[in-house]
Amino acid sequence: MSMLKYIFRRILQLIPVLFGVLVLTFVLSRAMPGDPILAHLPPVYTPAQYEAEARQLGFHLPLWQQFFIYLGNLFTGNWGYSISINEGQEVWELIWERFPRTLDITLFAVLIASFVGIKAGVISATHRNKAKDTIVRGFSLVGVAIPVFWLGLLLQFFIAYRLDLFPAIGYKDMRYADPEMITGFRIIDSLISGQWYIIGDYLIHLALPVFCLSFITLASITRQTRSSMLEVLQQDYVRTARAKGCKEKDVIKKHARRNALIPTITVIGLNIGGLLGGAVLTETTFNLHGVGELLLRAIIDRDYYVLNAIVFMITIIFILVNLFTDLIYAYLDPRIKY
Predict the structure, then answer these.
(1) What angle do CA 187, 270, 153 make, to 5 degrees?
(2) What's the CA gap between 200 and 125, in Å, rounded?
(3) Which tens digits make up the pLDDT trace of 17-29?
(4) Tell me: the pLDDT tens digits for 41-54?
(5) Gap between the terminal Cα atoms of the chain
(6) How far apart are CA 276 and CA 104, in angstroms?
(7) In this predicted model, what pLDDT tens digit does every residue of 109-158 receive, in sequence order?
(8) How far apart are CA 206 and CA 169, in angstroms?
């Protein structure tokens, strides 16, 4: 089967998943306690005012009619309007203002965690039960066990407040205005507008949250790489390569590491999807105003359209990341036939 046919078949298989997520999210969001209509009414209101506001927001229709109207609008590009967070603003515009910040910390964190995690996992596996292995396993165990918000608070207290090396909160110095919004990404927009000083300020503000996320992500990648490498190193073709006189570094890099990366790629893909969906605790701790914080506010304020749109976007991200991960499998292991 050609790769294009495989991609097409995978996309068709994921359509029911996407539809199921939309149904569950829509129904559960409407089942949350509280009434968003009351936020648009004065403290004392009449039933007529309540009915008029419900009609204006579209909440007077039966739930199934609201869902199909929302579904039709969603796939035609109309994601609705915010009803609580920033009343009247388009949901897509509200999300896009914050998504680039989440994407920035996700990419930086995943790149750092993948590079260091794979290296550390290989070193740990090739020095099994030795000092290097013990140190790597100790750090990975701490990374898996430590809560991300607690690590963020520790970084803020010691690095930001005690040592004053990096800013504790925010994504920019308040003295600097945002560059002209062209792409939505501050680094790219700063380069285009010639405001180079903003790039350094932005990267300094991202240092602590990126370290926080990369340390937590690094732990899972390291553990998975070590486990896969230990399994691969016991295979016959590795012993054969050593018996033929191949150098140990060639055995590790060319024969063992590439095959061991397949399970690790799965872990990396899941981490990318999860972090792009919104690192809620990290963004809230460091006051980054990203998608994760927006999702939390949408839940608290019962902003149905924002909540449903973010979950829809997260689902799409997971689908695309999983599909891309499957394509990387074929590159790493030519034996895989779809």
Answers:
(1) 65
(2) 37
(3) 888 888 888 888 8
(4) 777 778 888 888 78
(5) 6
(6) 9
(7) 889 999 999 999 989 988 888 888 899 888 888 888 888 888 888 889 99
(8) 9
Contact 217, 203 (CB under 8 A): no
pLDDT confidence tier of residue 334, bands split at 50, 70 and 90: low
CA–CA separation, 109 vs 206, rounded Å? 10
Instruction: Give the Å distances, CA to CA, from 92 to 24, 74, 82, 301.
Output: 21, 10, 9, 18
Residue 2: how many CB atoms within 10 A of its CB? 8
Query: pLDDT band for position 332 (50/70/90)?
Result: low
Q: DSSP assignment, residue 255?
A: I
CA gap 298, 174 in Å, rounded:
26
Domains of the chain (ranges plus CATH)? 91-332 (1.10.3720.10)
**Contacting residues for 183 by C-beta, under 8 A, at least 6 apart:** 100, 189, 192
Provide the CA 224 distance to its chain's centre, in angstroms: 19
Q: What is the token pair recorded at 3? A: 């790769």
| 135/144 Cα distance (integer angstroms) | 14
DSSP 177: P
Question: Helix-strand-coil percent breakdown of the chain, rounded to 5?
Answer: 75, 0, 25
Q: Are 82 and 303 in contact (CB under 8 A)?
A: yes
92's tokens: 């897509």
What's the whole-model pTM score? 0.81
- Give the burial class of 153: count Cβ atoms within 10 A of its Cβ; 0-12 exposed, 13-18 middle, 19 or more buried: middle
Q: Give Cβ neighbours of residue 313 (< 8 Å, ≥ 6 apart).
A: 95, 99, 277, 291
